[in-house]
Amino acid sequence: MKKTGITAFILILALLVSAFAFIHTAGADAGDFSGDSDYGGSDYDYDYDNDYDYSYYDDDDGYSGGGSGGISDRTIIFIIVAGFILYTVVSSKKKNKDGSPTAPGARPETGLLSVSALKEKDPAFSEAEVSEMISNLYVRLQNAWTAKDLSPLRPYLTDSLYAQLDRQLDTYRQSGQTNIVERIAVLEVTLNGYKENSETQALYATVRTRITDYVVRDGDGEITRGSRTSEKFMTYEWELIRSQGSLTRKPADRVVHNCPNCGAPLDINRTAKCEYCGSIVTVKDFDWALTSIKGLSQRTVGK
Is 269 inside any structural domain? Predict the structure, then answer.
């Protein structure tokens, strides 16, 4: 390979790394799924022209080979293959073992058992009530993200997800910035099905929302990323889990819970920490708790 070909390859590969890293990290909303670039597909027709250009290079800039001092055909093929491999690795990033959110554009969970099968095992299970709970939790999560304080939602998030989101919020705390999420609307919640193993049941839901979000400097309030006016139509997949064998409780049974560690009564709506033994308790010990978020798609309307 010619020296110019090696130099061009290194430069282009560096640009590819930077470009894809930017797409993944320049996010916003709770979990940093909303970003500056649209991604994924959607079942909604937003009635606008999507003129986003997914191409990073201009073909007119000259990738022809064979000429004196140019890049050979072999080099071009090598660059294309390397770029494709890099793209595949980045875009297909899966959920980490610690429960961290997946990269935007992830695929929905497959091989699910039907919700009707879950209702047979748990007759008190209500799709309407669970969908309403998910809608309320989404709005509260965005507000807590803006406040940079997830503690009010501690009981409703698993340990791994809470730790992951709090680490992401630390980036904003340490940089003196705030990600503001406003005009939050949950458009639709669809319960797709569930899976189970010997320890847990996992419920999967598609959550479609509309938000505006932007990042400001805490000192002067100047916007550093995003827009106050652009609306982002987001589609997520939420995974919620509860202990195997759990059954939906009637409202009268949800007032008081007991710590699974020491048996002491506790108010799960007030705190996730048992006042008697100090154990951290989440609602997954009694009901559904959010454990994973996938960003499936984003469509932006307006400037």
Answer: no
Structurally, how many domains does the chain consist of?
A: 1
The pTM of this model reads 0.68
Beta carbons within 10 angstroms of residue 40's beta carbon? 16
Domain range for 35 is: 1-248+287-303
Per-residue model confidence (pLDDT) at position 53: 33
Burial of 19 (0-12, 13-18, 19+ CB in 10 A): middle
Q: Is the dihedral of CA 78, 79, 82, 88 positive or negative?
A: negative
In a domain, 173, yes or no: yes
Q: In degrees to the nearest 10, what's the CA dihedral of 79, 81, 87, 93?
A: -140
Mapped onto helix, strand or coil, the DSSP state of residue 272 is: coil
Answer whether 231's CB lies under 8 Å from 183's CB. yes
E runs forming strands in the chain: 27-28, 34-35, 177-196, 200-217, 223-226, 231-243, 257-258, 265-266, 289-301
CATH of the domain at 208: 3.10.450.240
Q: Is pLDDT at 291 greater than 70 in this prediction? A: yes
**Residue 268 falls inside a structural domain:** no
pLDDT at 249: 79
CB neighbourhood size of 119 (10 A): 14
